[in-house]
Amino acid sequence: MKIHIKNGRLIDPKNGIDAVRDVFIAKGKIIAIGMPPDEFQASRIIDAQSFIVCPGLVDLSVRLREPGLEYKATLESEMGAAVAGGVTSFACPPDTDPPLDEPGLVEMLKHRAKSLNQAHVYPIGALTQGLRGERLTEMAELNDAGCVVFGQPDGLLSNLRVLMQAMRYASTFDFSVWLRPQEISLTNDGVAHDGEVATRLGLPTVPVYAETVALSNIILLAKETGVRVHLCRISSAEGLAMIRVAKQQGLPMTCDVTINHIHLSDMDIGFFDSNCHLMPPLRSSGDRDALRNGLLDGTIDAICSDHAPVDEDAKLLPFGLSEIGATGVELLLPLTLKWGMEMRLPMLKVLAKITSDPAEILGINAGHLSVGSAADICIFDPEHYWKVTSSAMLSQGKNTPFLGMELPGGVKYTLVNGHIVYERGTR
């Protein structure tokens, strides 16, 4: 299909473009920007007047819940939610049931995702067999099957020798290791930040030093092995300061933060709002402000949704017993725009955190609108505000701390490989 996107404000952070430009698409590729190519006859014209045309969003953490956890969500529902949020590429954590620790499971997931013909799925391979932290997976085989990076999503490995071996293995093949800096032995089955809110509510806590101790171990082992490390879901000012120093020392290290942690603090738990039961926990307002500023100075490289759809009944339990997680892939764009507006940032810098920057971390050719690249495009109305309700979200998981909030940024069209996979008149 030949598509002409006209009159839109084209914002492409990687190429430094912020101007009204037409985009011309044929055979799934962007074939021209600005002036039409010779003898171009569009079969579909999209008038993007007053809309922003940007690269399809890249999300570093979207749980599809397949295989094994289909009662929480399905591939169809979550990929539909992704494109409704303008997300065209995303990384899928390995904590499925069974985990993504064998090539056959990865190939099955890739095949299922491809058959839906929507967003591009990039599985994160399990670092250890069964995610038990005891024996390494065959990373090279998993890479051949489609895993682009390797991680241990539930916290730092209890056995540091195994972690060092994993880092050495990954470094040998130039694979990136993705780790969530949380020392499991120091969490004490906690569910909230170690502060006055947890004390008042009588909730067991996850102290900040659970993050900083884990970071210390990761940084030291990264120095020893030379592996590329991506730190997932940074939550504290102290942790951020450690990462800043490590980067200044030249370590090949990146990190991300979730949309939840740049807007919320432990005060938002209120009276046991289980939608705020997240991991890492929502921390103090000082930590939240430090994370927002860490995005500004480049210490934090990207924003992710940390999308984790949860069965509704599992959130009706008491706070400490409720299931961890919140839906977020449809909120990545509006909550990032909200952060940008509050920080008075140019749109070019704001969109970089959810397009070109995460694409570079993931090591994929995405997040830009260069001539010759795949036509993965998000078209949205920055002036359109919509209310976050259960009926407004396509994800099977409806639980989010932002329910009832009005947010900017209504996605109008999402294109993947030059095909319109999502279209909405009003939201």
Features:
427 residues, six-stranded mixed beta sheet, 20 strands, alpha/beta, TIM Barrel
What does this structure look like?
This protein has helices spanning 75-84, 103-116, 139-145, 160-172, 196-201, 209-225, 237-248, 285-296, 332-342, 347-352, 356-362, and strands spanning 3-6, 9-12, 17-20, 23-26, 29-33, 44-47, 52-55, 57-59, 87-92, 120-126, 149-152, 176-179, 192-193, 205-206, 228-231, 253-258, 302-304, 377-387, 406-416, 419-423. The protein is an alpha/beta fold. A hairpin with a 2-residue loop joins strand 4 and strand 5 (29-33). Helix 2 (103-116) runs parallel beside helix 3 (139-145), helix 4 packs across helix 6 and helix 6 runs parallel beside helix 7 (237-248). The mean pLDDT is 95. The protein has a single domain (56-362), classed as Metal-dependent hydrolases (TIM Barrel). The two termini are 26 Å apart. The radius of gyration is 21 Å and the shape is globular. The strands form four sheets. Strands 8-9-10-11-12-15-16-17 form an eight-stranded parallel β-sheet, with helices on both faces. It is built from eleven helices and 20 strands.
